[in-house]
Amino acid sequence: MISSGYARYQHRRFVMDRLKERAIVDLELISADIRSLQQWIQRDLLVLRDLPDLQALLNSQNVADESYLFHIVERQFLNIAAHHQIFQQLRLLSVSGKEIIRANSNGSKLWLTPERELQDKSDRYYFQEASLLRDGEISISPMDLNIEQGQLQIPLTPVIRYSTPLFDHQKRKKGILVLNVFGSVFLNLLDRQQKQVRGGENYYLLNKDGYFLYHPDIQKRFGFMLGHNETVVKDEPLIAAWLGTKERGTQLKDSAVTGKKTLYAYIRIPLTYPIQPDFPENSGDNRSNSYWILLTTVDDANLLLGLNEYVQSFLKFTLLLTALCVVVAVFVSWRFSRPILSLARAASKIHQGDLSSRARIYSQDDMGKFGNLFNKMAENLEKSMGNLQRSEAKYRLLFENSQDCIFVTDKEFRIVELNQAGRNLFALGENKLPRDLFLFDLGVAEKQGEQADVIRQLAAGEAIRDVEIAIVRRDGSQRYCIMTATARKGEHGIPSGLEGVLRDVTELREQQRKEQQIDRRIREEIVFAQERERRHMGQVLHEEMAQNLALVNLRLQEAEQQSCRRHNGPEEVPSCIHDELLETRNMVQVMIDQIRTMIFDLFPRVLDDQGLGAAMAWYGRNFSRKTGVNVSVYGGESELGLSKSQNIFLFRAYKELLHNAWKHAETAEIVATIKRRDEIVRMTVDDEGRGFDPQQTDMMTDEFQGIGLVTIRQWLDSMDGRMTIESEMGKGCRVILDVPIKKKENGSDECFSG
After folding, report:
1. In the beta sheet, which residues pair with residue 293?
2. Which of 35, 335, 492, 532 has its CA 20 to 30 A from that of 465?
3. What is the Cα–Cα distance from 288 to 294, expressed in whole angstroms?
4. How far is it, in rounded angstroms, from Cα 369 to Cα 351?
5. For the chain, how are helix, strand and coil distributed in percent, rounded to 5?
6. SS in 3 state form for 2-59?
7. Backbone CA torsion sign across 625, 630, 636, 641
8. Residue 40: how many CB atoms within 10 A of its CB?
9. Residues with Cβ < 8 Å from 293, sequence gap 6 or more?
10. Contact, 87 vs 179, CB < 8 A?
11. Could you tell me the maximum CA-CA distance found in the chain, to the nearest angstrom?
């Protein structure tokens, strides 16, 4: 009966676990498709924002050019709407909210809205949200029904609006770009999934207020705009408070609609830019915290069909097997009771100290063999006890004469036995061991994670070897020791204490710490010397080479003028002389430009004048022009709190990482961020290139010796920083540099002055 009940319980549990896993997997697949669509639309919006003709229109100062560019942008809007048939409207709004261009699509027809029909959208929430965004940010509206001229569009058209501000080259806001996306592209994903499942399974899409955006019953959709109160609270009040409390969840409850036991599973999909699957709602981010809830319900009515018949048939077999086992057990117990009782009596006498006691043998079967083995064991035990007494005497001699501390503790780490070397280590005399002498200072251990781990291992009965710990002597001073210890086992194998060896390494660790400080200072001074040399080279190039070349250029110009005067005008000068002078002047000018570029590369003035964020953006633009790789820089607008040397280190690291990505990653886009979090400044450089195995950078093969990552690690070592590389083959690479903000020390940055 117990077996039958347990089998039923395990079967039901197995079925429900598999059902929950399948429900979450189905939701994750649909959620992935929705997020993929969101990312695609966001990329299209940013691509549309960066159209050369649209940018030219925003920066145009000529009325005739504006009219010409205006018509080009209109045609491009129509072409994009025709190519991407998911867009219901593509609109360009002025900074005041007035529509300037509106391209429309109903899925089969494209048209431009006449100027007289363009509307003022300044009162719409999506315009007001987009007006507060910075350059490069995107506002994503909730899904609702499209409204034209203050009325719902018929037929009803669900839309989602993606908006971003437009700026000219001088960073002045020039308007708002809005994409109206057909909501049906998201709802059709759920509609197709709903048609593929069997009866008893349903899919829903809810907004954060619980209204249905998708419901198998079309009449229940968009109740917040159609005036009916069809929400998940109305249909299923028992799960309404549970939905959306986490990123995902499953729950088994009785359905208020069907009255059946029903499995509910949901995943929350954030509407943010960029798409972040696990974006916390209360993270402090000032972007929209709107989200959707993807919900599925699975009816439990037919899951356990046939299980009762299985349990009934299994119960008959269980009863028959039980009766047979009783008969066999009586016979076996009688057969084995005599030799077992004999063994028990002999074992009891041995336990009482009579090592000469032996068991009686009744047969030559397995129990007889076991009795013979027991008797041999008792004989060996008698011999071993004599050897043990002799070994104990030798151990005591070794214990007392050892140069290292040998200790024994109870299970609370109180020292109960200690040799002479241990007494010297703990600063004890020859008196009896005090009761409050512990191997660890538990108050200190709670503050030291590594020592706390050692205590946990020892308390669990695990052996440790060559682990460094701190002990507190009786005079209050600390000593650092290398410990090797094992657990002492009591009855039933339960740890009853420790025994081990301590070796004092306090002076050795202090010497190592001083050597590490000297080594770190040397590495830092080497880097400082490199930066001083860069600045000196830049000054030499600027003050000597560039000035001399400028003077040569003036001399060539003067020679050209003198030649013209001597030949009565430039038209009389021989062409060979005139061309040679002109070509030489051009070559000199090219050399001047190259030297200026070298000066900027050696030590960019923008780093001193405007800060690290501006220097990264400046270098990224120049890098993009030279290589064709699109570089985006985010953050760095506020004061980072870095010292001048840290600014220089991070800027050099940023340059190295850009060149590494360009040379080795084969990427078309690089995104860099610089941001301060508490007392840490974090720089990240992401590319979408071919990726690599980060462990290869430690192997120093020929392929990786020149990529600069080793140099960056050396820089970070001098700043107590840390570098993290996240990469996989074919999946791009992210390099994270964390630098702690430290107080400026005297003379720490003087090497960069002057």
Report:
1. 206, 268
2. 492
3. 19
4. 22
5. 50, 20, 30
6. HHHHHHHHHHHHHHHHHHHHHHHHHHHHHHHHHHHHHHHHHHHHHHHHCCHHHHHHHH
7. negative
8. 13
9. 205, 206, 207, 208, 243, 244, 266, 267, 268, 269
10. yes
11. 141
Task: Dump the DSSP string for 645-663.
Answer: HHHHHHHHHHHHHHHHIII
**Cα–Cα distance for residue pair 674/680, rounded to 1 Å:** 11
Contacts of 1 (CB under 8 A, 6+ apart): 315, 318
Long-range contacts for 99-102 (Cβ within 8 Å, ≥24 apart)? 100/175, 101/70, 101/73, 101/74, 101/77
| Token pair in block for residue 326 | 């009783």
* Nearest C-alpha neighbor of 673 from the set 689, 660, 657: 657
Chain segment 678-727, per-residue pLDDT in tens: 889 999 999 988 888 777 665 544 444 444 677 788 778 777 788 888 88
Please answer whether residues 428 and 418 qualify as being in contact, where contact means their C-beta atoms are separated by less than 8 angstroms: yes
DSSP per residue, 201-220: EEEEEEETTSBEEE-SSGGG
For the stretch 175-228, pLDDT in tens is 999 999 999 999 999 999 988 887 778 999 999 888 999 999 989 999 888 888
Sequential DSSP letters for 448-464: -HHHHHHHHHHHTT--E
Nearest to 659 by CA among 685, 635, 683, 684: 685
State pTM to two decimals: 0.43
Identify which of 592, 506, 496 has the alpha carbon closest to the alpha carbon of residue 541.
Answer: 592
Residues near 335 by beta carbon (within 8 Å), at least 6 away in sequence: none
CB 183 within 8 Å of CB 37? no
Give residue 511's identity as a one-letter amino acid code: Q
Q: Are residues 697 and 666 in contact, defined by beta-carbon separation less than 8 angstroms?
A: no
Task: Tally Cβ neighbours within 10 Å of residue 639.
Answer: 9
